[in-house]
């Protein structure tokens, strides 16, 4: 991901070695970093630092990550929060989405995965930082709400646009149907998971992806976009 000067990231975790590891890595990527080791410090710091991204641990002494997330979403009009969770429980994910979390990463995680998710959140929530963004043969123009493939603007419905955009900005990451439903349709969507299959099939037809080389199906896991 291209270095983005001026992008602010707040790291919140009570484990010093995690903070040190992430601060070093993200600073080297060009981000402006602030750190906090407890929830109240994070809330107070965020009000002056005004971060674009908050990487927030769930389990902390005092105010836990859920409450910090709720307070930050109330305090800041436009902030993206990535929760760090110790286990991949549906209840935790739903709770986080309900109170405003934008994404979550399960510990232990790789730095590359977190960096990819930060990039995805920035492109999704702060498109003005990027303008047109290219991914292999694709180009997303958020100002025009268009996606081009091999130089041709695709004829997409609003939902197809959001789904393809989500797949592209998370390229290389396996996305389950449940995750896609949460992020594209919303956590309160009351329909069936197979709606994802219907829209994936439609996208493949419009991309002439008959052999599923662009949008791959990983049986039992979900979908992954592989860019040439």
UniProtKB/TrEMBL annotation:
Residue span(s) of domain OmpR/PhoB-type: 130-227
Residue numbers carrying 4-aspartylphosphate: 57
Key words of the record: DNA-binding, Phosphoprotein, Transcription, Transcription regulation, Two-component regulatory system
DNA-binding interval(s): 130-227
Biological processes per GO annotation: regulation of DNA-templated transcription
Gene Ontology MF annotations: phosphorelay response regulator activity; transcription cis-regulatory region binding
GO terms under cellular component: cytosol; protein-DNA complex
Tree of life domain: Bacteria
Domain named Response regulatory: residues: 8-122
InterPro entries: CheY-like_superfamily, OmpR/PhoB-type_DNA-bd, Sig_transdc_resp-reg_C-effctor, Sig_transdc_resp-reg_receiver, WalR-like, WH-like_DNA-bd_sf
SUPFAM superfamilies: C-terminal effector domain of the bipartite response regulators, CheY-like
Keyword Glycosyltransferase among record annotations: no
Protein name: DNA-binding response regulator
Lineage: Bacteria, Bacillati, Bacillota, Bacilli, Bacillales
